[in-house]
Amino acid sequence: MHPMVKRGLRRAWRDLRYVQFGATSAHAVIVGPVDTATGSLISLLDGTRGLPRLRDEAKAMGLPESQVDALLARLATAGLVDDTTGGGPEADALRERAGAALERLRPDLASLSVVHPEPGAAMARLAARGATRVQVRGAGRVGAAIAAVLSASGVGRVDVLDSGHTAPWDVTPAGLAADAVGERRDAAAGRLVRQCAPVRLPRGVHRPPPADQPRDEPPLSLVVVAPRDGLAVYAPDPAVAEQWLGTGTPHLYAGVLEATGVVGPLVLPGGSACAGCMQGARTDRDPAWPRMLAQWRSGRDASLAGPCDLALATAVAGLATAHALAFLDGDLPASTGARWEVSLPLLEWRSEWFRGHPDCSCGAVGHTVGERAPGAGEPHDTMTG
Does one domain contain both 279 and 155? Predict the structure, then answer.
């Protein structure tokens, strides 16, 4: 073990005896009382020394060797210690394979170390991302940006599915570039995914093999539904989702419709509300909804550019990708069973929770996966002495 005080948390002495790690209330921790010698010992926890050397240096400072272990145990309990050599065999393989490419992911590692307190947990989760496969359905302003950021964040394989050719209005700073106009959307998005990957992928790895070719590929960890037509996110078609429900594949909706951004719900088949549950709930409130929905789905020219503000689309893509990564890292984000919406011009996020509908066969009735207690998600003080 090469212990290191987590660099993602800012450090400040509150007075001569107490030191605070972290500025924000979500992750701030106060440690104390700390004497001068212990403070000097903390400064040695920079990830460059193993335990034997730390014990020797503590002895040279006139401290008992046991004080190193006691201090590490105390800091680890507070979630303040990382291990620069930890994470298990998969993390070791990532360090060896990625090499200098890991430097691009240093901020991501620091963030993971703040969120997941166990020593070595950050690198273990980053390595686990590399073994996941995500499919993004859509290569427009939202979908292409999601695919790019997922790839840049260390997701091992990102497949992008879309039809047609890149239009001028598909171009965004976070997604497809101007030189992709006229190119097949799936091919352009695949090139973008490869370019963004910290560890460069072989050409063609983003595309599924032909239907008549045996598939030797990892199962899908997540499908992100981000079509260019935001109606398919705001009112998703249950028939389209049947394949994911049948295979138990989690899927997350994200898009923009009429200057309103949508993230969620994240559907856990059999555990949280699906597209059918959403449609049933809306029909219960508004019996005319299915009639209008049928007209909207069939009455729009797909070649037209809908209202999709660039800044809003980028914000939606960023939030959706963050929710996707949280799920891949083993957490249940706030979009689990819930939809988050934000509309121009006020840009105030609001959420709507969906329960399993009794007329839907997905099996989510009675399940409360992802449901939050009243007040959950509000800022709270986690500082401890």
Answer: yes
